[in-house]
Amino acid sequence: MNKWIIAAVVALSLPLSAARAEVDKKAERLWKGKCASCHGADGKGQTDQGGKMGVADYTDAAWQKGHTDAAIKDAITKGVKREKNGKKQEMDPFGEKLDAAQIDSLVAYIRTLK
Ligand code: HEC
User: Fold this and answer.
1) CB 49 near ligand 1, within 6 Å
2) Which of 19, 24, 50, 64 is buried most deeply by CB count within 10 Å?
3) Architecture of the domain defined by 23-112
4) Is residue 30 within 8 Å of 107, Cβ to Cβ?
5) SS3 assignment, position 33
């Protein structure tokens, strides 16, 4: 390959991977700041709040399989209010606090927990 083509390909791909890493860092910060109090930094839900409300373990393969991206996005946007095994499960909606790109980045982040 012509060395100029190689240089161009490298120059074009570097900023992309840097941007991608930046998104992941931002999503991680969001998760730790807004979600980890209930879901745990590791996503296992082993927090005081998580225990009281029966928060599931999102690192679990069965959980990951049982939830589509759309369902995860929907839950983050609209929140959760239901009862399961006698435990009240409540999560505030984040649709007004976070923009669509932030919510998408959280869906992707949740996929990395497994
Ligand atoms: C006040 C505690 C609390 C906070 C903060 C919280 N959640 Fe939740 N979340 C819950 C509870 C309770 C449930 C329902 C139990 C479960 O399915 O694990 C839930 C469920 C979910 C679900 C699964 C929904 C479903 O249909 O099963 C996702 C995905 C989720 N939360 C993501 C997030 C994200 C992302 C954040 C941060 C932006 C967040 N949560 C912040 C308490 C919380």
Assistant:
1) yes
2) 50
3) Orthogonal Bundle (1.10)
4) no
5) helix
Model pLDDT for residues 25-59, shown as the tens digit of each residue: 999 999 999 999 999 999 999 999 999 999 999 99
Q: Which ranges of the chain does DSSP label H, i.e. alpha helix?
A: 3-30, 36-39, 48-53, 61-66, 69-78, 100-112
Q: Which atom of ligand 1 has the smallest separation from the CA of 58? A: 18
Q: Does 71 contact ligand 1 (Cβ within 6 A)?
A: yes
Residue 103: the pLDDT is 97
Mutate to test the pocket of ligand 1, among 35, 63, 74, 81 (most ligand atoms within 8 A of CB): 35
Q: Is 107 in the pocket of ligand 1 (CB under 6 A)?
A: no
Q: Smallest Cα–Cα separation from 58: which of 98, 11, 6, 106?
A: 106
Q: Domain segments of the chain: what residues?
A: 23-112
